Amino acid sequence: MRRIILFDGDCYFCDVNVQFIFKRDPYAHFYFTPLQSDKGQELIQKFAIPKDIDSVVLIENNKVFTESSAALHIAKKLDGLWHLLFLFILIPRPIRDGVYKYIAKNRYKWFGKKKDSCALPSSELRRRFL
Fold first, then answer.
1. Beta strands 30-34 and 63-66: pairing type?
2. Do 99 and 68 touch, CB atoms closer than 8 A?
3. Residue 130 or residue 28, greater confidence
């Protein structure tokens, strides 16, 4: 079963998070694709995800998770103590998503957008892209 993470391919912060997840996912639980890619658009259509989504998206067992729920379900599968972050699922979703939306709204201002040229991912990471 593939767990697929859709992320904003223009966002530097999102790219850093993909690298973070990859380094803490030695069992290759996750595959990645930018929301803007053909595959990302195909998955958006297949799972009826709003086209204007401004969130990381996790597709797991044919279920779609967005915003804080996606982030916490991703953390649950990471090596180390990161899985403990899943305990935040106990916080009511409107509160969790409020924090998530605040960060998402400001991510370009705080972290910037990716430049036209960027470092190529390792061949191992490229194999995990759809």
1. unpaired
2. yes
3. 28
